[in-house]
Amino acid sequence: MSPADQPEKRKALIEDGFCVFESILNEEMLSRVSCASNRLLDAQDKEHFEKQKSTGSLICLYDDPFFADLVGWQPALDALNSLGYVAPKFSTGFVISKPPHSPPLFWHQDWWGWEHPHSYTPNPQQIFLMYYLVDTTPQNGCLRLIPGSHLHRHPLHDISEAHTEEIRLAEDVTSPAYLDHPDEMDVCVKAGDVVMGDSRLLHSAHANRTEERRTVITLWYHPIYDELPEPMQAQLGKRNAEAPSQNYPPTGVRTWPQNAQEKIRDLIPLYTGDKSPLNWNRTPGPQLK
Ligand SMILES: O=C(O)CCC(=O)C(=O)O
Question: Strand pairing partners for 144?
Fold first, then answer.
């Protein structure tokens, strides 16, 4: 990792698990991202929202090559750079939108590499960049999180696994998976700010009790990809081979037209070594104390 121009933000990201950069999207870009997101949201059928009650929506941004412009957005890459992350890689992202009057999001963390000892060290293997497209408050479903839970075990780690069908359907919003917790912190932001957070951090979102849609675009980057253990690199890079064959049709970024791929070429992780991909496991082990 290189020296940081923003040592306080880097300290916050590493120790608390998150930091915020203000006004990363200018008005024009905010409007372009909002149009593309609304287009995708409006194209979903009713069933999509019914299946994702708690999240709101979960649309992969590889569904629209416009998002290459957001993934490669220079002010965000400059912000990463200012934390000392000069060669980040990108894996995937989602359009997550809470419709008016929708339930809270369940508590969860998003890291999948818990079977490797590197996952129990401070530097983030994967971070989220969350762009909220409207100003957020506890009333319209702002982000809430448990500071420090990326490095330390918390009782909310023991609730059921994230993204199971039961939990996605928000059938019982009185379960601890959705409730406020005394250790939680609300992160309210302005449209166009970006929240950067460690994927291991426990987080969720309040219910949307307003009449307006509340959308966030979550992008996952790997700030120290080159320093990650090879099995992690292999898991991230295996799907990006440049010449997919008939047996292996293109997935992810390789489904985008060439000009969109080109825009984020330096951010695409490519793994050419011979290690097997690390097993995908979203449950932290007993090493998390
Ligand atoms: O909807 C939100 O505010 C948070 C989304 C989220 O938890 C995620 O992208 O992992």
Answer: 186, 204
**Quick one: tokens of 267?**
């951010």
Domain ranges of the chain: 7-241+259-267
CA–CA gap between residue 137 and residue 128 (Å, rounded):
20
For domain 7-241+259-267, the question of CATH label 3.40.50.1220 is answered with: no
* Ligand 1 neighbours by CB, cut-off 6 Å: 96, 105, 110, 143, 203, 205, 216, 218
Classify residue 3 as exposed, middle or buried by CB count within 10 Å of its CB (0-12, 13-18, 19+). Answer: exposed
Q: With 80 as the cut, is the pLDDT of residue 245 above it?
A: no
Residue 44 pLDDT > 80: yes
Residues 27-47, mean pLDDT to the nearest whole number: 97
Q: How far is the CA of 205 from the centre of ligand 1 (A)?
A: 7
Rounded Cα distance, 121 and 113, in Å: 12
What is the C-alpha to C-alpha distance for residues 13 and 17, in angstroms, rounded to an integer? 4
